[in-house]
Amino acid sequence: MRLDLLGPGPQNPSSTGTSSTGTRGETVPTVPSADSAADAADVTALLERGRTLATPVLRSAVDRLAPPMDTVAAYHFGWIDADGRPAEGDGGKAVRPALALISAEAAGAPPETGVPGAVAVELVHNFSLLHDDLMDGDEQRRHRDTVWKVHGPAQAILVGDALFALANEVLLELGTPEAGRATRRLTTATRALIDGQAQDISYEHRERVSVEECLEMEGNKTGALLACAVSVGAVLGGADDHTADTLEKYGYHLGLAFQAVDDLLGIWGDPESTGKQTWSDLRQRKKSLPVVAALAAGGAASDKLAGLLAADAGTDDPAAFSEEEFAARAALIEEAGGREWTAQEARRQHTVAIEALDAITLPDHVRAQLVALADFVVVRKR
């Protein structure tokens, strides 16, 4: 399949290159920040506002869990260490809570109106992380051992399930018609997220996955929940379906841009920044966008990569491969154009997300915040 048949997106990877072969850990070169609607300090303030308003409600929700699930969840969120001592762990980027609060402002409501939505989306997101880490065999998240490594697989499953149940409680206990509408959007997004995880796992055992299949999977796994995050606050604030649907479209394409950057970091990211092992996605045999794009490109590097990955399928233990072998695969992906194609796809999805906002009238400061967060999502190291 030729990637240039996908429409007005990035070029065929066989026709593009990159000047950073073999480099690791640099900021992903996607959207330039010079013309951003807000500077980095403004984005930091938006993310911090999301944390400040959502975290107390999130903690209160987690406190409802029966022991030891409350403790296990607190460890996962970075509030305590493995021995139960208070900790200041890395709680993640907090993009989803920030979007939920801005979403409420898009409906003309105070940002606080979006807090239950922000908390519900964070609970679903972390439900997925707990399960994903176990299914993927990830031993590190946010520079710490994952829950299943510390507390065992059973607790990772149970606590993940409990967080999903809490997410629905947080919304439904508001008891308003808007809460019912918001919960429907959350459950629909969660089902799509689970579909995406199922696709992701199934693709690991296939020699070939099309770019269209990969984008569909990533739209489900990442785009759906970001779409929910940026619409749920508006729904709670009384927005009509057209406004919420438009914000969802922005969030969906932003999610695809977000995941494209994650896919780049999953191969070339600096472990000190990402909190994961070197060549993380290659160790897990993920059919991420750079891999899929490289395989679809054709040419010598693509064919050699396909041969190596087909041979790898007979080996279940990633430890059987040396660092040099993973590095060689990453170099072939880059030579075939998979790295540059994915960076271009992140740019394209970013553009589609921003253009979606033209369908509704937004206060200037709300639009500026959404543009600034979109820029942040695609220019990052972790």
Strand-helix topology:
Blueprint: H1 40-62, H2 69-76, H3 95-106, H4 115-136, E1 140-141, E2 144-145, H5 147-151, H6 153-172, H7 177-203, H8 211-236, H9 241-268, H10 271-274, H11 280-283, H12 289-297, H13 300-312, H14 323-335, H15 338-356, H16 364-378
Antiparallel strand pairs: 1-2
Helix pairs in contact: 1-3, 1-4, 1-16, 2-6, 3-4, 3-8, 3-16, 4-6, 4-7, 4-8, 7-8, 8-9, 9-15, 12-13, 12-14, 12-15, 13-14, 15-16
Folded structure, characterized:
This protein is mainly alpha-helical and 382 residues long. It has helices at 40-62, 69-76, 95-106, 115-136, 147-151, 153-172, 177-203, 211-236, 241-268, 271-274, 280-283, 289-297, 300-312, 323-335, 338-356, 364-378; strands spanning 140-141, 144-145. A two-stranded antiparallel sheet has the order 1-2. A hairpin with a 2-residue loop joins strand 1 and strand 2.
Descriptive terms for the model:
382 residues; mainly alpha; Farnesyl Diphosphate Synthase; 16 helices; disordered N terminus; prenyltransferase activity; metal-binding; metal ion binding; Polyprenyl_synt
Summarize the structure.
The chain has 382 residues and is mainly α. The protein is built from 16 helices and 2 strands.
Would you identify the CATH architecture?
Orthogonal Bundle
The CATH topology annotation reads as: Farnesyl Diphosphate Synthase
Q: What's the overall average pLDDT, rounded?
A: 88
Largest β-sheet summary: 2 strands, antiparallel
Strand order of the largest sheet: 1-2
Structural class: mainly alpha
What is the helix/strand order?
HHHHEEHHHHHHHHHHHH
CATH superfamily: Farnesyl Diphosphate Synthase
Helical content band: 55-70%
Strand content: under 5%
Beta strands, count: 2
State the shape.
Answer: globular
What's the CATH class, please? Mainly Alpha
Total separate domains: 1
Roughly how many Å is the radius of gyration? Answer: 20 Å
Low-confidence stretches: 1-38
Distance between the termini: 31 Å
Summed up, the helix count is 16
